[in-house]
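look at this one:
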Amino acid sequence: MLLSPIANSSAVCVLQDPKAPKRPMSAYLVFLERYREQEKKLNPELKMADIIKKLALKWRDASDEEKRECEVRLSILVGAPCLLSYTSGGH
C-alpha cells in the first residue's frame, strides 16, 4: 500500500506492508491466544465475541503471576528483554 503525500506538503511516500501488524502484541493478546481454543472447545455454541468477553473477565481476575507469565512469553516472542527481571528487581 502506498501512501501519497498531500499536495504542497513535505510528506514522503512510504511503502508499507499491508500485512504488518498495526500495533505490537500485548500480554493480553498472548493470554487470549493461550485460552481461546480451550474456551472454544468448552463452549462450542458461543460466538467468538462472547468467548472474548469471557476471557476478558478471566484476564481481569487473573493473578499477577499469570499476567507476568504472559509478559515473559511476549518478551520471548518479540525478542525483547525479559520484563520479569525489571518487575522483580533482579538484574
About this structure: The longest helix spans residues 27-42. The chain has four helices and two strands. Residues 25-87 form a domain with the DNA Binding (I), subunit A fold (CATH 1.10.30). Strands lie at 2-3, 14-15.
